[in-house]
Write a structure and sequence with these properties.
By secondary structure, the protein is of the alpha/beta class. It has two domains: 199 residues, 3-Layer(aba) Sandwich (Rossmann fold), CATH 3.40.50; 96 residues, Helicase, Ruva Protein, domain 3, CATH 1.10.8.80. 46% of the residues lie in helices and 15% in strands. A five-stranded parallel beta sheet has the order 2-5-8-1-9. The protein is globular and about 70 Å long. The termini are close together. 39% of the residues are buried.
Length: 320
């Protein structure tokens, strides 16, 4: 296999890197990893779940991403009385036209922030499934296509569980990536505290890329980045190891394998390569796979990220 870098640049890579640099260098300092993972989800057509305590910038991250990409933005604040129609939209009778008119809900935007998703009832949570998986919404027997690009950024607080509805495994599996935001480094956090909120500054943000450029980058990741048989074997060994581990009841599914391969391609693209190396897989295995693992009832307190990290250490990394 020829692993020489391509002679021509990958389409729109410089523009995508400019998005990451703009967000992490000016507006979201100290959140480079979270920004990069959001971009990887965008490039693969996946969705991302930000799981962390309030006040660390999850909402600001989603809003800033939409602004810098020049995409339409919709926000859904989940509560226990939120209805599926509040997400998808509903038909309203027009007396003037003597007919029902479909009013589109917030899901008909390019980037959707679903805030505190675990506070919505299961029936409402399930309204997102078709949108997240099929990029379509069916209302009253009519199917509507969602815009492209499309990204769901959902958040939940892992600490406060009063009045929440835990996400079922079937919906967790719809998220390509699950990650936290974390506290910024000390000096960065002091600067943020001194400067105050950046929400006003975000309103004047100028997009550095268009939706068409994002879609071109998405196609480049899918069609131009090679996943070799040797790297595929390494990826599969990781998946297989989760299925036979004594502490895991249900390991990674085939869909998880596809998602990990897609994320590894996106990471290779960001690194300027048109081929995936094992380090791409290893780097994305935890944010893509840890939240999908199901452990035994008596192992509920087990740290899934640490568990998957220990599995990765046991699997030899092949030379390519």
């Amino acid at each position: 296999m020829n692993l020489e870098p391509r002679t021509s640049p990958l389409p729109q890579r410089d523009a995508i890197l400019a998005v990451i640099d703009t967000l992490s260098g000016r507006y979201l300092k100290g959140k480079v990893r979270s920004v990069r993972l959001c971009v990887i989800a965008l490039l693969t057509g996946g969705n991302i779940l930000l799981e962390d305590i309030p006040g660390l910038g999850k909402t600001t991250l989603a809003l800033a991403l939409a602004r810098v990409l020049g995409l339409s933005f919709g926000r859904i604040q989940c509560t226990s009385d939120l209805l599926p129609s509040d997400i998808t939209g509903l038909s309203v009778f027009s007396r003037a036209d003597n007919r029902f008119t479909f009013i589109r809900g917030p899901v008909f935007n390019n980037l959707i922030l679903v805030d505190e998703i675990n506070r919505a009832m299961p029936k409402t949570q399930s309204a997102l499934l078709e949108a997240m998986e099929e990029r379509k919404v069916t209302v009253e027997g009519t199917t509507y296509d969602l815009p492209a690009p499309f990204l769901v950024v959902a958040t939940q607080n892992p600490v406060e569980q009063v009045g929440t509805y835990p996400l079922p495994e079937s919906q967790l599996d719809r998220f390509l990536i699950c990650t936290g935001v974390g506290y910024p480094p000390e000096e960065v956090e002091k600067g943020i505290i001194r400067g105050g909120s950046i929400r006003t500054e975000l309103e004047g943000m100028t997009p550095v890329i268009t939706g068409e450029q994002v879609m071109e980058a998405h196609r480049a990741v899918r069609e131009q980045v090679l996943l070799s048989e040797k790297v595929t074997d390494y990826l599969y060994r990781i998946i297989a190891a989760t299925r036979t581990h004594p502490l895991i009841v249900s390991g990674l599914s085939t869909r998880a394998g596809i998602n990990l391969a897609d994320a590894a391609r996106a990471n290779a693209y960001l690194e300027g390569r048109d081929y995936v190396i094992p380090e791409d897989v290893k780097q994305l295995a935890i944010p893509v796979g840890a939240h999908r693992l199901i452990t035994a009832a008596d192992q509920d307190g087990l740290d899934k990220e640490q568990l998957l990290r220990s599995i990765l250490k046991e699997i030899p990394v092949p030379l390519v």
